[in-house]
Amino acid sequence: MQVGIDMGLASGAPATLDIEELLATRLLVQGNSGSGKSHLLRRLLEQSAQWVQQVIIDPEGDFVTLSDRFGHVVVDGERTEAELAGIANRIRQHRVSCVLTLEGLDLEDQMRAAAAFLNGMFDADREYWYPVLVVVDEAQMFAPSIGGDVSEDARKMSLGAMTNLMCRGRKRGLAGVIATQRLAKLAKNVAAEASNFLMGRTFLDIDMARAADLLGMDRRQAEMFRDLKRGNFVALGPALSRRPLPIQIGAVETSARSSSPKLMPLPDAPQDVEDLIFTPDPEEFQRPLVRRAPPAPRPTTDILAELSRSTPAASAVPAEARASQVEVSAEEREERLAGVLAEILDDPTSAFRTDSVLYQDFLVRLRMRRVPGPPIALPEFRRRVAISRSGVDVTTAATNAWATALSLSSGVTDDLQGVFLMLAKAAVCGEPCPSDARIARAYGTHSARRARRLLGYFEEQGIIVVHADFSGKRIVAFPDMDCQTAPGDANAPDTGYQPLAAE
Q1: Which of 189, 300, 370, 434 has the most CB within a 10 Å radius?
Q2: Does residue 486 share a domain with residue 350?
Q3: What is the DSSP string of 58-88?
Q4: Cα 233 → chain centroid
Q5: Any idea what the CATH number is for the domain that residue 133 is in?
Q6: Is 264 contained in some domain?
Q7: Positions of the region Disordered (predicted)?
């Protein structure tokens, strides 16, 4: 059954959206804050409520008002992951529309709750694979393009759930509708699965260019996205239009609990205004002060000092006696860990092996040397490897510039930290810019083209600025660190790597 819902006006005529086609091809909505994304989603939900089951992932609690008019069940996200997965499964069984409100949770808890709910819907039995319109507002929070201030475990969990929704959800009846403020912050593998697009007002060049690419428009036409009025979008896709079509979104029946700010006159100041402000309420002193301090990262100087120590010599104690020597001091254990890590990184082929493979080798060597206690976790192992490969010395590691570099490196993914820290070390020390071959080795590849793409990616994120001197040699500058590398030949060979005879 073909059902077309009215989204508004397009050149004076009704703009219709084919719901059945949308269920098969998914939708991406993009626009800066204030462009009318939430209004568009509300129009879509209201018009399609009678035709298809709906599930809304609502980080701000704006869509709970749909329950009063259309009977959506409101699910509070402040539950355990097991509870949310069970509710999501029963939502599919009984075909009930719902709003998962995540208001009041911090970002990491929002990501975990949304992931648990989406996974619960995704894992429903085949007999309950009825069509569901799954709307995710502020999708860049749940499918970020790069790591942020949340744990890697939460990011992977949320990104995996969003990838399942957009890439594999169609066969299970799940049709993703995702809305984001910035395309550059949304994971590309999630955005790429949408075949329908509604692009609203945006101002940043990178977002305008990407929106133009998705709509098949010339990049010179990208400037039009700056001029779009609030509530106006450009539509493209099999469920909307075969050619880019400007649409003005129509009115809605319900409203969000929050609204756009309006100018209001200030009230007359009372006579005792200073007493009102500076006299504390007695209840203020009874409220507990809750502070959440993140664990302090381990200083780089400590890691470098451990890596610089030599590998402890093998003990001459018999195996039976050595097996009984379980208790060792913390310093000795750290020495053994650092020695095993140094052995692995001294192998010239280690640069071209993935961190997970190196980590497995690391665990095996720990068991062979009978190092007691739990080994370091994979994230800590990756961090040590990245710092070691950067070549930073203890003196440089103690500088403020290097501390800034470490802070910036937390904004890139684990696989790119080694490359980023190597470039940052060259900038802090004023060394020549590493060549493409050297960057490629730090990334674990032989491809110079991929190395250049990495530099382009860092530049797109605004972390570095790449330019050349008068002789054409490359310079990489770090604006946040106020330093840059010396000019370096991009095509120079990687003198630090000596290929084996078998190669």
Answers
A1: 434
A2: no
A3: ESSSTTTTHHHHH-PEEEES-S-HHHHHHHH
A4: 26
A5: 3.40.50.300
A6: no
A7: 309-330
Token digits for 88?
């999501």
329 shares its domain with 472: no
Identity (one letter) of the amino acid at 363? Answer: L
Write down the pTM of the prediction. 0.54
Task: Determine, yes or no, domain membership for 160.
Answer: yes
State whether 406 and 489 are in the same domain: yes
Convert 170-197 into a string of H (helix), E (strand) and C (coil).
Answer: HHHCEEEEEEECCHHHECHHHHCCCCEE
Burial of 323: CB neighbours in 10 Å, binned 0-12, 13-18, 19+ = exposed
Query: Same structural domain for residues 146 and 189?
Result: yes
Domain endpoint, select from 358, 390, 422: 390
C-alpha dihedral sign at 148, 414, 463, 144: negative
Torsion, CA 107, CA 157, CA 148, CA 476, rounded to 10: -160
Domain that holds residue 383: 296-390
Q: Are residues 308 and 325 part of one domain?
A: yes
Going residue by residue through the chain, which has 503 residues, state the pLDDT in tens, using 9 for 90 and above.
567 889 998 888 889 999 989 998 999 998 888 888 889 999 999 999 999 999 999 998 889 989 888 989 999 998 888 899 999 999 999 999 999 999 888 899 999 999 999 999 999 998 999 999 999 999 999 998 877 778 888 889 999 999 999 988 888 999 999 999 888 888 888 888 888 989 888 877 777 877 787 777 776 677 778 888 888 998 888 998 888 888 999 999 888 766 556 676 777 766 666 766 777 666 665 656 555 555 556 666 666 666 655 444 444 444 544 444 456 677 777 777 777 777 777 776 666 666 667 777 777 777 777 777 777 777 777 777 777 777 778 788 888 888 888 888 877 877 788 888 889 989 999 999 999 888 888 777 777 888 888 888 888 888 889 998 888 899 999 988 889 999 999 988 876 654 433 33
What residues contact 113, with CB distance under 8 A and at least 6 apart?
77, 78, 79, 81, 84, 100, 102, 105
User: For residues 322 and 93, what is the distance between their CA atoms, to the nearest angstrom?
Assistant: 59
Could you tell me the two tokens for 312?
């402890």
Residue after which a domain boundary falls, among 332, 356, 390: 390
Instruction: Give the total number of structural domains in the chain.
Output: 3
Q: Is 247 exposed, middle or buried (0-12, 13-18, 19+ CB in 10 A)?
A: buried
Packed helices 81-94 and 107-122: angle between N→C axes, nearest 10 degrees: 40
- Give the position of tokens 């710092």: 387
- Whether 156 is in a domain gets the answer yes
